[in-house]
Amino acid sequence: MTAKPVALALALTLSAGAATAQCGGDFGSFVAGLQQEAVSRGHDAAAAQRFFSGVRHDPKVIQADRAQGVFQLDFTTFARRLISANRMQTGQQKARQFADTFARIERDYGIAPGVLLAFWAFETDYGAFQGDFNTLNALVTLSHDCRRPELFRPQVFAALELYEKGDFEPATTTGAWAGEIGMVQMLPEDILTNGVDGDGDGHVSLKTSAPDALMSGGNMLRSLGWRAGEPWLQEVSVPEGLDWTKTGLDHEMTAAEWQALGVQPRSGQMMRPDLPASVLLPQGRHGPAFLAYPNYRVYFEWNQSFVYVLTAAYFATRLEGAPVFDPGNPDPGLSGDQMEVLQQKLVARGHDVGDVDGILGEKTREAVQKVQIELGLPADAWPTPDLLNRL
Questions:
Q1: Strands 253-254 and 276-280
Q2: What is the 3-state secondary structure (H, E, C) of 230-248?
Q3: Which of 39, 49, 98, 347 has its CA 20 to 30 A from that of 67?
Q4: 165 and 309, same structural domain?
């Protein structure tokens, strides 16, 4: 599954030069410019010529980039679509099969098996569906496209470096439409920085080696700030009288302070009462509720979609033994078209919602909460038809 960078893009480190990179124009001339830049960066001219010789523009990549409607689904619908009994069973089987690898990851990086199993499941169904887009064509096409060239142009040169190391083949390396490669879908720059030879064969082979893919994913999460041995998400129940203005990712208290306000774990004990945490209400105060610990924020470095991140984090807890979440009885939400209208109205009132795309992301949620406060409504950041009508 892929829908990046709105949803499934891995974290990118953008150079200052990339932000002003040229795009558009004749595709052949654009590729020639990339080749010339590669040589100026110190790459061998003959290698650069071979690398770029067969690159082609792929219109299907642009179509995929523009079509990401799945992220307009609400959390419960999205989670039920992605989390199947088969994915649970396969995850448990993979945990046993690669127990030694997961033990190394937990020892070296402090990351529980469920976290990487969830990514592995959602990204490629445990390696079964890694994408059939030619990776180089995808990266160059997205670099040429003027929507987000600064995200993808650095990846082209990273792929060239992988090619020079013998770990990338321009004609045959395939992956997701946004250029991610392998079982946990990593971009070339991230492979260079965080790739780990988990099976000891001298190469980082994320497409064919589960130990390589999992160890690399664990190393990347650590580099993104994962705190060893700490929880990331816990389902909770919330009292009807909670101050909803305190909920959302932009508000934190310790788990113990939340508990003093009536927020209780749905099962077991509060995982870490001493840690700062945010109460997340993905479908408002009458829907499911979660306590997000600091490690939860690392998920947004891997992926930018609120609904994907919450679902991946929740699935990780399920793979670690947590029960099925309580969907509650949330108030009706908005369709994608209605969400776009709402976003337009929020922008007109001076709020930053990011892209007007019909997707209820974190910026839209924060804007909704502010407007609910202005209108004297319960400020649970869940937009309803009633809120839209009032605006």
A1: antiparallel
A2: CCCEEEEECCCCCCHHHCC
A3: 347
A4: no
Rounded to whole angstroms, the Cα distance separating 21 from 146 reads 10
Residue 318 has phi, psi (to 5 degrees) of -65, -45
pLDDT of residue 67: 76
The helix/strand/coil state of 292 is strand
- Give me the pLDDT at residue 22, please: 81
**136 three-class SS:** helix
Among the candidates 319, 354, 377, a domain finishes at 319
Q: CATH number of the domain that 56 lies in?
A: 1.10.8.350
Q: Is 280 helix (H, G, I), strand (E, B) or coil?
A: strand
pLDDT at res. 69: 59
The CA–CA distances, whole Å, from 116 to 168, 213, 316 equal 24, 10, 8
Instruction: Give Cα separations from 51 to 39, 46, 157, 164, 166 (angstroms).
Output: 12, 9, 10, 9, 12
Q: Are residues 174 and 307 in the same domain?
A: no
Is residue 178 domain-resident? yes
Contact 268, 278 (CB under 8 A): no
CA–CA dist 219, 213 (Å, integer): 10
pLDDT of residue 72: 82
DSSP 8-state assignment for residue 276 = E
> Does residue 186 form part of some domain?
yes
How does strand 233-237 pair with strand 264-265?
antiparallel
| Angle of CA points 71, 74, 78, to nearest 5° | 65
Counting the structural domains of the chain, the total is 3
Residues 369 and 381: beta-carbon distance below 8 Å: yes
- Are 358 and 286 within one domain? no
Regions of the chain where pLDDT drops below 50: 1-21
Pairing type for strands 290-292 and 233-237 reads antiparallel
Closest CA to 182 of 163, 205, 207, 212: 207
Q: Which of 98, 96, 116 is nearest to 211 (CA)?
A: 98
Structure tokens at 270: 């509060």
Structure tokens at 290: 């979660």
Q: Which domain, by its residues, includes 369?
A: 336-390
pLDDT at 198: 97
Q: Tell me the C-alpha distance between 62 and 41, whole Å.
A: 28
Express each pLDDT in 241-272 by its tens digit. 999 999 999 999 999 999 999 999 999 999 99
Is 150 in the same domain as 289?
no
CA 306 to chain CA centroid, Å, is: 8
